[in-house]
Structure formats: C-alpha cells, structure tokens
Predict the 3D structure of the following.
Amino acid sequence: MTLDPRALNTYAENAHKLQGGGFSGFILRTSFDALARNEVLQVLFFAIVFGIRLALVGSEAGACVTRLIEALSTV
C-alpha cells in the first residue's frame, strides 16, 4: 500500500481552507453575525463576556477601550 501524492496534496489544500482564525475568529464571526440577524440572546451573551474580559484586563489597555466605548455611545 502506497500513498498517492496527489490525494495527499488535495487533502492538505482542503485542510488549509478550513482554517478560520481559531477561537477568537469564531467568536468575532458569530457575534457580528448575531448582530446582523438581530439575535438578542447571543448579543447579550457576547456583551457580558466582553465586559467581563474588559474588567479582567484592567490596566491602560482596558481603560483605553472603555474610553472609546464611552465616546462612541455619546454619538
């Protein structure tokens, strides 16, 4: 039994197409998709998780994002 190099190449190409950016890419895609489809429960879940992560970051990076959100909310 031998390996067919063409079949292996096809498999590698298809596997490469399936890579979608990992977990963070999945979360971003599903959250923006939920916003576009107006699914309140998923948007609420994303907002809660985002708020918790923002609070856990603390430091200056978290404060910068918080100021940005506050500035955008006034608009």
